[in-house]
Queue: 2 jobs
Job 1
Amino acid sequence: MLTATKILQNVPIFNRMFPVDQSDGLEEVNSWPALMIVTSFVWLFVAGLLGVAMPIIQVMGLDTEWFYRALTAHAAALSFPFAFQLMVGISLHRAGGCLGKSVSGWLPALNYICMNLGAALLAVAILVGGLSVSLVLMFPLPVVGVATGQWSMSALILGFTGIGLVLFTMIIWYPVNILKISFFGDSREELVLSARTINDPGMLGMVLASLVLLITGTPLLIVATYVLVALYGLIPLAAIAWATEPVVFQFAFFVFAHNLMEAMALMVISGIYATLPLYLSDGTRKLYSNTLANLALWILLLTSFSSFLHHFITLLPNLPASLAYHANIMSWATGIGSALSIFTILATIWKHGVRMNPGLLACLMGFTLYILDGASAVVTSNVAWSFHLHGTMWQSGHTMTVLVAMSFMWLGVIYHHYPVMTGRVLDDKLGYWFVGLVSVGSIGAALVMLAGGAAGMPRRFADWAQGDWMIYGDFIQLFGAMIGIGMLALAINLMKSRQIDQASGHPASAPEPAE
Amino acid sequence: MLDFIYMNAWGAFAITLFMFIPFFIVFLFMVRKRTVTKPTPSTVEQGGYAQAEWMWLGLVSVVFVGVNIASIGYMPTVATANAVASGQEITDVSVTAQSWSYDISDSKIEVGHPIRFSGKSTDTMHGFAIYHPDGHVLFTMMLMPGLANPTSLIHTFTEPGTYTVRCLEYCGLSHHEMRDEIVVVARNG
C-alpha cells in the first residue's frame, strides 16, 4: 500500500470522498492524485469559512484587522492549496493514466508535502501572526509592516517560509513531475487508462503549462530564495538590496503570477479537449479539429507571456506608454486563442451531439464562466479602462471568476475520473444540483463584483459602507453562499457514492468503458 | 456614447456584457439543441463549418480591433502626451503618499486647466485614485516606492466639486482610511 493511500484512509470525513480502489492494480496512478484532490477539498472548506467571515466582519463592525487577515488567508487558500493542488491532482492522474507512467515516488510526495506544509505555515502566519499582505504580497508591504508594527518579524519569516515552499511546488516540483511523466521512463501497459500522445490537444496543454511555470517562475524563485535566506540571517539584508528593490520584486512576481493563471488556463482547456470527445453522441470521440484546438493553445501561450505588463499600466511613465500599449494588444490577442477554443468546442458539440451528464455540464458551465472572466480581463487590460478600473473590485471579480471557472472545469473532469480512481459512481441528481447552484452563484458573484468595481468599490478594503458599496457586498455574500451550497452538494455526492457493481438502475451514472 | 463607454467604468461593464451575453445565449442554445439521450450517428453536413469559422474569427477580430481603436482618444497616456506636445500651460501637483496619508502640494484646482499629477511613495505600494463627486473613478495611479521618477499623468477637470482621493493599492491595516480631497473650482473663482 502506498503512503498516499495510508494517509488518505486516515483523513477523517474527507476520506470517504475518494477511497482509492486498491483491487484494480492502478494504485500507482490513483493514490497520490486522490490524496491531493481530497486535501484540496479540505482547503476549500477552510477558504469558504474565511470567505463568509469577511462580510460578517464588516456588517458586525468588528476590528478591520480581522477583515484583512481573512482576506489574505481566503485568497491564499483558494489559489494555492485548493485550486492549484486540485489541478495538480487531476492532471497527474491524467498524465499517468494517458501515458502509462507511475505517479508515485519522491516527486509527487515532495509536491504534496511542500504545497500543504507551505500553505499551513502561511495560514498560521496570517491568522495567528497577523501577516495581512493580501494574495499578491504587495511587496515591500511585508517588511514595511514589520517596521510599522502591523505584524512581527516572526510572522513574516514564517509566512515567507510557507510561501517559499508553495513556490517551489508550483515552479519546480510539479512542472518537473509532468515533464518527467511526459518525456522520460517507459510506458507500462497495465497503467494505461486511455493511450494518448503529447500531440493530442488534451495532453499538449499540460506540457506547455509546465514549461510556462518553470520559465516564468525561475526569476521569482531566485529573488524569493535570496530574500528568505536573508530573513533567516544567513546573509545580510544589505547584500540582497538588488532583490528587495520593490520594482525588481514586483516585476519578477507578476511575470510569474500572471503566467501562473495562464498556465492553469492552458491546463484546463486541455482538460476539456480531452474530456468532451468522450461524451459525443455519435461515438466518434474526436474534436472538430485537433489543429484548431492546438493552435488555440499556442496562441494563448505566446500572447499571454508579455501581457503580464498590464498589471503596471497605471505606473506611467515608469512603465513606458509603449509597453502599456503592447500589454493592451497582447492581452486582447489572448482572446483570439479563446475564440478558437470556443469555436472548437461548439463545432464539436454541434457536429457530433453530446450525451449530457453532470460532469460534462460542469466543464461546459465552467467554460462559459471562463469566457465571462476573459471578457472582464481584456476590458480591464485596455489602457483607457485600466485607469478607471485598476484597484477596484473589478480585479477581485476577475481573479475570483477565473479561479472558480478553472476549478469548476476540473471538478467536471473529476466526474469522469472518479469511477476509475475509486471504483464508485456518483448520483446524477445531486450532480445537477451542484452544477446549477455553482453556475448561478458564480456568474452572479462575478457580475456583482464587476458592477461593484464599475461603481468604484475598492478591492481589499475593509469599509464597504464608506462609498455606499455595502449592497454589492450583500449580493456577493448571497451568491457566494450559493456556490458554497453547490459545493456541499458535491461533497454529499462524493460521500454517498456507490460501488460500481451496486449502481443498478442508473445507467447514466455507469462509468464509461475503458477509454 | 463613446464618452460614456470609455470615460466611465460602467461603459466597461456594458462592453463586457455585450461580449458575454450573446455568447452565453448562443452557447446554451447550441448545447441544449445538440444534447441527445441516445447515441446516434452524426447526420450533420460536413460543409459550412469552415465558413462559420472564418465568420466567427472575423467578427471577433472586428469587435476587438474596433473597441480598442475607439479607445485610443480616451487613454490617459495619449491625453498626457498630447497635453505635453500642445505646449499649453500645465500646472504641476506633486503627491507624496505614505502609510496612511497623502501630502498633496495643491488641493485646489481650476476647471479646464491641465494638471500634471506626479506621485511618489515613501514606504510601500500606494495608489492615488481620484473619485468624481458622483462616485465613479476618474483615474487611478500606482505609486511604487524606490523609483527615481514619479508616476504621473495629466488630467483636465471639467466640473467643479469636491473630489475624493483614495488609495487603491492595498497598503496595510489602515488602507481603507487613507484618503484625502481635492476641490475643483470654476475658472476665476
Job 2
Amino acid sequence: MQSRAKNPKLNPDKKRAGLGLASEVAIFLGILLVNASWFFYSFLGGNYWPVAVISIFISVLLIILIIFKSLETNRSLGEREKKTESAPENQEQPGPATNNKNKELLEANEKLRKMKDDFLKTTQDLFQRETELVQVNKRLRGLDAIKSEFVSVAAHQLRTPLTGIKWSYLTLLEKKTGLLNPEQTKIVKKGLEAIDYAIDTINDLLNTARLEEGKSTLNLEEQPIGPVIQEILKQHEPVIKEKKIKLNVDIPLSSPLSLKFDKEKISIVFDNILANAIKYTPEGGTIGLKVFREKDKIKFKIEDSGIGIPKEELGKVFSKFFRAKNAVSFQTSGSGLGLYVAKNIVEKHGGNISLESEENSGTMVTFTLPVK
Amino acid sequence: METKQEIKERVVKHILIVEDDTFMSGLLARKFSSENFKISAASNAQQAREILEKDKVGLIILDIVLPGTDGISFLKEIKGNSRFSSIPVVIASNLGQPEEIETGLKEGAADYIVKANTSPGDIVEKVKSILEKNT
C-alpha cells in the first residue's frame, strides 16, 4: 500500500484530477481571449463592448470557480489517501468474517516467519555441529595416532629387557658357556618359561588392542595349512615332552588342504588353542589334533583330556580376560585373552569357532575356515 | 693366496650387527661366532658406515631404535647406495606392529625379526637360509 502511494503511476485518481483542471483552464482562457478581442474591437469603433465586458466577467468568475473546485477535489483525494495509508484495513470496510480470515492469515504468517527463523537457526546449529564434529574427529585421529605410538613404544620397552633376560638364559643353556648342574638348568628353564609367558602376554595384549581398534587387517594368501600346524607343534614340543603328553595328530597326507588365510594370524589361533590344551592337561594326558575337509570348509578339532570347564562358565569362554575358576586354581598364570583373540581371527576369516567341555574330563575346540 | 671362491665365502660369512644394546649384540655375536661367522658390531649408523667403507660385509642385522639415524633411515641409505644395495639386511627389533614390519620389508629388508619372539639360534638359522638363497 505504501509503495502504491509513493508511485504516481499507481495513483490514477490524482493524475486524472490534474489533467482535468489544466484542460478546463485552457478552454476558459480561450473564451476569455475571444471576449477580450471583442472588447478591444469595440474601442476601435464597434458596438459590442457591453456584451464583451459581461462575457469577460462571467469567464473570470467561472475560472475562479473551477480552480476552487479543482483544489477542493485534490484536497479530498489527499485526505482519502492519507486515511488509506494510515488504516489500510478500513479501506474495504471488512466484515467480521474477513477480520477473522485476516487474523488467521496474520497468525499463519507469524507461524511461517517463526518456522523460517527456527529453520535458519537449526541450519546454523547444524553447520556449527558439523564444524565441531570435524574438529573432534581430527582430535580423535590425533589421539588414535598417539595411542598407537604409545602401544608400540610400550611394547618395545617391555620386550627389550625381557629379550635381554631370555637371550641370557638361552646362552647359559648352551654347552659352550660351560655346563650347568641339573638344579641350575632347571632354574634357568623355569626362568625362560616365565619370560616367554610375559612376552606372550604382551603379544596377546597387542593383538587385542589391534582387534579392538579395528586395525587388524588380514593378509590372505592361498597356501597349505600343514606347515603352519607343524611349526606350532614344533614350538610346543619341549613342553609336550616334558609333561609326557600323548599327542595324536590326524592330518590327511593325501590332500595338501590349501586355503586362503593369514599365516601370522592363524598361527596365533593354533598357538593359543594348543597352549591352553597343553597348559590345562595334567602330566601323562592326551591331546588330539584332527584336520579334515567338510564340504566347502576345513575343520580343525583340538581335543584334550585336561581339567575341562565348569558347565556354568561355558557361556563365557570367548569373553575377554575370562578364566574359569578351576583354571585359575590349576595354573595361576594366564591372561584370559587366548580364546577371545582366536575367535576374532577365525570369524574375520569367515569361519566359526565352538567349544565343548566337561569338567575333569576334557575340552574340545572346533573351528572352521572356508576353502573359498 | 685366496681363491675367488674363498674370498666370496669370507665376505658372505662377515655379518655386521647394528645394535645399540651392546649386551644383546654381544649375545648374538657369540652365537654367530660359534657358527664360524666373522662379526663386526656397530652401536649406531655412523659406526656402521665406517665399517662398510673399510670392509666387505655379507649381511647386516639392523635394529630400528638407534641413537642418531634410526634403522629405517639407515636401511633407505644402504638401499639407495649402489655399492651396498645388494647386501641383504635383516631387521631385528622389538618394534613389531604390522605397520612397522610392512615398512621395513617395503624399504628392502630381506626379513623382519621381533627379537623377543625369537632366539639367537633362530636368527643364525634365518641368516644362513638368506645367505644360501643369495649365493
